Amino acid sequence: MEQRDSDATAPPGLGVGMVGYAFMGAAHSQGWRNVSRVFDLPLRPVLAAIAGRDADAVRAAAQRHGWAAAETDWRALIARDDVQLVDICTPGDSHAEIAIAALEAGKHVLCEKPLANSVAEAEAMATAAEAARARGQVAMVGFNYRRVPALSYARRLIAEGRLGTLRHVRVSYLQDWLVDPDFPLTWRLEREHAGSGALGDLGAHIVDLAQYLAGEPVVGVSAQTETFVRERPRLAAAADGLAAPSGQAATGAPRGPVTVDDAAVFTGRLASGALAAFEASRMASGRKNQLRLEINGERGSLAFDLERLNELSFHDHREPAATAGFRRILVTEAEHPYLEAWWPPGHALGYEHTFTHQARDLVAAIGAGTDPSPSFADGLRVQRVLAAVEESARKNAVYTPVQEVPAEVR
To answer: What does pTM read for this prediction?
Structure first.
């Protein structure tokens, strides 16, 4: 019997190199590993190499997640001929340097959110991405919650006008991993590494979702932020920011200053005049990873809860009052975004699938030569909102306009 050569019909390979291997590195690895087994793609992602500073740890990560090689210098990873796309999963203080170097080396780039630690860095990244675009390269920001099928479907309903003119947008993102005052001082609590605290970590997600779903930017904010625990025990060794399994602070360890916010609350106005309300906290006892939103329009409303991420609540305000109300939409049908490739209706997806969808959209854009979304310009737009929030908070909640993104990088 003739043996079929499967490689003869396989799409061309796309060598992926990842910088970083902790929480986000593991999530991105799963997305890259699975995407071509789920979706038909114009290119086949190949896990070429992963980079990290700790040689033993990065080799272990490569073996665990299926990367062919390990590097201890991100510059060496970028220089590899078998890497055509660089995926950045490092703390924010290194995003700009790595992304710009990768773009200048001719690579496509995926960068975790927030895009950078400052507007100046984000502007430089967006400018580099625009220059690379002329050479056929693409750059995308990893706002993975856009890839929740229910939220993608919500965007479709809003774009179709099912809610009519928008009136209100409310979004909250709450966690509780910092409630313990003796949780150690990881990099996520230091401004020089993280840029900001709950604002950049969680607030970036909800600002992006508000702008994505509404289809318009936030143009001004009034904000307050707070750091409730101002000193924490120092770590003897570095640890991932969300947990410290091997980096628990020793009893009696010296304490260091927390230089970022624990929580941020702010109101905003969208370009159309719609009002928005945002809350981001890592000090909300009992909330592990709760992201909730509601959007109200003249014709109806939508609501979503990440803890029930396969569901969307929809209210059509044009129905008779006697029967009107929110109804549950189970977002598992083949007609819903991304669901054509997954399971029969009623079989739920989870958090990890958003990274597979993210990889799919990026590879599809590379193959088609189109611009991926969210772009670095979108990331810069979010960064400008975060900067306005911090400025408003410094001025005791004074309303602060959001600076527009320059036309040359939109």
So the answer is: 0.93
